């Protein structure tokens, strides 16, 4: 046991498939998360490792499994997600049930995934999209873009969740659509998802006008279809011809409704929100996701530089640490242009 070579005598009796299925069944997971894990087990783990007993699962077996996934056409993202699930399952076998001496999922880099950066709309494009979409959904588009709420949170909003006097929307539940067509109501994605998000003044005006045109009782949904039914993602995309109007708004053909959330988070980051503030506004339990939206942009960097220039100009005794005429922005652009022409 000290050398880490001991394994439980029960480990040879339990297969990876049996243990993993029980692990998923016993966890207090959100319905969509449970559905995702079951799909990963069924399609990417069980066919390759499911028959192995826990004591026969080695780092070499894990490496071979991942390589087989990739060679059969699975993406690096799928392989990474499946690897993280297997690692979590085996961590329980190691730390809680003491069925294995070591977790074989300890290979550096296997849990990393590289996904294509999603599109972000400009403010002008957001307004263009709100004008092109069916009128009853214009406020939905604007609220998504300027609050960063998820689709499931938006379509579950009730009139009582909107406090337009204070300019706040309270997020306390969401709708989740399952693969079998069922839709379940539950709390947001994480504990931090229960939050009150402040609205820009313009959005308060938009929502006020929207509720006059499409009134709702306190317990009723804010966003509904023409016949009063709650919105479903696929039906919404089809009815508003989403693929068509995003192109007309000047956005790329693959722009998704969820990309409006990315837009809102990027705008909040560009406004100077701190990591903690972004984490709260996004409804995330950790700061990892918020850091994604704090990458530097040339526009924001220019704003910072301009602000620094204003600070410098406030100091009457500031002198340039070089001889010659005062260094001007125009002169800087001329010099930089000359350098670029003569460089690789």
CATH architecture annotation name of the domain at 123-255 = Orthogonal Bundle
State the CATH superfamily name of the domain at 123-255.
Intergrase catalytic core
Shape: globular
In CATH terms, what is the fold-level topology of the domain at 123-255?
hpI Integrase, Chain A
Mean pLDDT: 84
Roughly how many Å apart are the termini? Answer: 61 Å
CATH hierarchy class name of the domain at 123-255 = Mainly Alpha
The largest pleated sheet is described as: 3 strands, antiparallel
- Could you spell the SSE succession in H and E letters? HHHHHHHEEEEEHHHHHHHH
Helix content: 40-55%
Radius of gyration: 26 Å
Task: Give the structural class.
Answer: mainly alpha
* Number of DSSP E strands: 5
Oligomer: single chain
Q: Residue ranges: pLDDT <50 for 5 or more in a row?
A: 318-344
User: How big a fraction of the residues is strand?
Assistant: 5-15%
How is the largest sheet built, in terms of strand order?
1-2-5
Helices, by number, come to 15
């Amino acid at each position: 046991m000290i050398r880490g070579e001991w394994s439980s005598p029960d480990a040879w009796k339990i297969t990876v498939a049996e243990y993993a299925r029980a692990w998923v069944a016993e966890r207090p997971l959100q319905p969509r998360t449970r559905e995702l894990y079951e799909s990963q087990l069924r399609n990417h783990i069980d066919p390759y490792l499911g028959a192995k007993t826990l004591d026969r699962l080695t780092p070499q077996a894990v490496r071979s499994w991942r390589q087989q996934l990739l060679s059969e056409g699975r993406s690096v993202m799928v392989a990474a997600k499946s690897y993280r699930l297997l690692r979590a399952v085996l961590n329980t076998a190691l730390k809680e049930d003491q069925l294995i001496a070591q977790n074989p999922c300890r290979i550096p880099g296997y849990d990393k995934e590289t996904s294509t950066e999603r599109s972000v709309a400009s403010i002008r494009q957001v307004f263009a999209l709100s004008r092109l979409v069916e009128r009853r959904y214009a406020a939905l588009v604007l609220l998504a873009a300027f609050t960063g709420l998820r689709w499931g949170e938006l379509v579950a909003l009730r009139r009582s969740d909107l406090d337009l006097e204070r300019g706040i929307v309270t997020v306390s539940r969401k709708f989740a659509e399952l693969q079998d067509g069922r839709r379940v109501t539950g709390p947001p994605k994480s504990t931090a998802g229960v939050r009150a998000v402040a609205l820009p003044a313009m959005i308060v005006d938009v929502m006020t006008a929207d509720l006059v045109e499409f009134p709702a009782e306190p317990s009723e949904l804010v966003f509904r279809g023409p016949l009063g039914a709650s919105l479903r993602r696929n039906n919404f995309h089809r009815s508003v011809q989403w693929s068509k109007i995003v192109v007309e708004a000047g956005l790329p053909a693959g722009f998704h409704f969820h990309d409006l959330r990315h837009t809102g988070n990027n705008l909040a980051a560009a406004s100077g929100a701190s990591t903690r503030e972004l984490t709260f506004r996004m409804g995330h339990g950790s700061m990892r996701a918020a850091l994604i939206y704090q990458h530097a942009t040339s526009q924001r960097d220019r704003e910072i530089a301009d602000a620094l220039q204003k600070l410098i100009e406030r100091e009457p005794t500031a002198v340039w640490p070089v001889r010659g005429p005062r260094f001007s922005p125009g002169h800087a652009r001329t010099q930089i242009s000359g350098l670029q022409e003569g460089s690789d």
